């Protein structure tokens, strides 16, 4: 029976102390979210399922290492993030790269007025993200695509909050410069 009234952190404590069967509820809460996040790195459904399964195995094995005084979401996203990076490193020899990934903008803060503009910009944004250094790309993905706060990104990436803010600001500048150059080259004055 689901327990929507319980926060993730409370559910973790119950799983640790009383009822390991409730772990399936924790998995249900995060399955769709993590699939959406991992899809940014992994195209193949089979591979994505394998990585997701590995994430849930690691979460289960390390559930006693989680600090229940902190938020659970950044902790599980950190594990998913690490698994996605490990997957990319392992398969980079196979020709899989971030340039091959599709990026779906889900951030409500981005106001793209018309669908036409979105369709024109989307491939350029994807290319721009692909050429950014990881240190800029990863926080931008978490902020704009996964709608994580600076604090959550700080926990996920194990960086100070100020550093996260700086990386996002610099990443946005670099992405904007890339887009301006691409658009200028396409439509010179």
Characterise the protein shown here:
The chain is mainly alpha-helical. 67% of the residues lie in helices and 0% in strands. The protein has 2 domains: 1-96, RNA polymerase sigma factor, region 2, helix turn helix motif (Rna Polymerase Sigma Factor, Chain: A); 102-189, Orthogonal Bundle (Arc Repressor Mutant, subunit A). It contains 8 helices and no strands. The longest helix has 26 residues, at 161-186.
Brief summary of the model shown:
67% of the residues lie in helices and 0% in strands. By secondary structure, it is mainly α. The longest helix is centred in the C-terminal third of the chain and has 26 residues.
CATH topology of the largest domain: Rna Polymerase Sigma Factor, Chain: A
- Taken from the alpha-carbon principal axes, the silhouette is elongated
First CA to last CA: what distance?
63 Å
Q: Please give the share of residues in helix.
A: 55-70%
Count of domains: 2
Report the CATH architecture of the largest domain.
Answer: Orthogonal Bundle
What quaternary form is this? Answer: single chain
Topology order in helix (H) and strand (E) letters: HHHHHHHH
List unreliable stretches of 5+ residues. 99-116
**How much of the residues is beta strand, in percent?**
under 5%
Salient structural properties:
8 helices, mainly alpha, Rna Polymerase Sigma Factor, Chain: A, Arc Repressor Mutant, subunit A, 189 residues
């Amino acid at each position: 029976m689901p327990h929507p009234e319980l926060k993730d952190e409370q559910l973790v404590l119950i799983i640790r102390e009383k009822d390991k069967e409730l772990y399936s509820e924790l998995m249900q809460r995060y399955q769709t979210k993590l699939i959406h996040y991992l899809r940014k790195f992994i195209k193949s459904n089979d591979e994505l399922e394998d990585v997701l399964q590995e994430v849930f195995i690691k979460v289960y094995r390390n559930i006693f290492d989680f600090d229940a005084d902190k938020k659970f979401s950044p902790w599980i996203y950190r594990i998913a993030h690490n698994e996605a990076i490990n997957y990319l490193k392992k398969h980079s020899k196979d020709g899989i790269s971030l340039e091959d990934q599709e990026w779906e903008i889900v951030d409500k803060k981005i106001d793209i007025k018309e669908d036409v503009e979105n369709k024109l910009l989307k491939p350029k944004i994807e290319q721009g993200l692909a050429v950014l250094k990881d240190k800029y790309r990863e926080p931008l993905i978490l902020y704009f695509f996964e709608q994580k706060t600076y604090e959550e990104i700080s926990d996920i990436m194990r960086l100070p909050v100020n550093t996260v803010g700086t990386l996002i600001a610099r990443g946005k500048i670099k992405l904007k410069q890339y887009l301006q150059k691409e658009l200028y080259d396409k439509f010179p004055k």
